[in-house]
Design a protein that fits this description.
By secondary structure, this protein is mainly beta. The chain has a single domain, classed as Immunoglobulin-like (Sandwich). Helix content is about 5%, strand content about 40%. The chain contains two helices and 17 strands. The strands form three sheets. Strands 1, 4, 8, 9, 10, 11, 15, 16 and 17 form a nine-stranded mixed β-sheet that branches. A hairpin with a 6-residue loop joins β8 and β9. It starts with a strand and ends with a strand. The model has no long low-confidence stretch (mean pLDDT about 95).
């Protein structure tokens, strides 16, 4: 099982655009997302790494990606962002079996859901998703598939208030379960890679039994 010690940063009112610089200043290590869990059907592995830290009330995440084509068709939050060039952060903040999927495409359109498994997930309301500040090097305007090698970055500030099925005020000192993914279901070359390896026979990110550990 992969494990990360997530450093706490004392910073107030940081914006998503400032996150890459803040992580650099605090010497945050970047973790590779490179597990190709279904190599026969989906062998392609784009380059992806992420840095993560936390503050008193939020996660700060910065993704860096290089892939052979990009797509950002989803028009609004909670559309099918996983069909685009998409980075995903799954986290169980309370150890009660309920986890959140926070999925964001390369144009900053995102989806937040909550539940104990793939089925019967509850999508976040717009007043919840709008709390996540996002920044991307590709801008915020949706676009169709571009078949050209592209490097892009995405940063998210995820306040604990986004965990709408809980009342989280602090996560200091806890060890949480979660995973990080990169996918693109409708890209010319679909792919499904993960930070912590997955042992299911077919692509499935909704498998908390294969989550790694995040210690805050």
């Amino acid at each position: 099982m992969n494990c990360i010690d997530i450093k706490k940063i004392s910073v107030a009112d940081v914006t998503a655009k400032e996150i890459p610089a803040v992580l650099k200043e605090n010497k945050i290590f970047y973790n590779k997302v490179e597990n190709v869990n279904w190599p026969k059907e989906f062998p392609y592995c784009p380059k992806m790494e992420f840095g993560i830290a936390h503050t008193d009330d939020a996660f700060l995440i910065h993704y860096r990606v290089e892939e052979q084509s990009i797509r950002a068709v989803a028009q609004k939050d909670c559309d099918n962002v996983w069909e685009d060039s998409c980075a995903e952060f799954f986290i169980s903040p309370a150890g009660d079996g309920l986890y959140y999927n926070i999925e964001c495409n390369c144009a900053g359109t995102l989806l937040v859901g909550a539940g104990e498994g793939r089925n019967n997930r509850q999508l976040a309301a717009p007043e919840v998703t709008k709390q996540i500040d996002r920044w991307t090097t590709l801008g915020r305007t949706p676009f169709d598939t571009k078949e050209q090698p592209t490097a892009w970055e995405l940063a998210l500030r995820i306040p604990y208030s986004v965990f709408f099925r809980h009342n989280i005020t602090s996560l200091d000192g806890l060890t949480l379960r979660g995973n990080v993914y990169k996918c693109g279901d409708k890209l010319p070359v679909p792919h499904f890679i993960s930070w912590n390896p997955i042992g299911t026979p077919t692509p499935d990110f909704h498998c908390p039994q294969y989550f790694g550990e995040f210690t805050l």
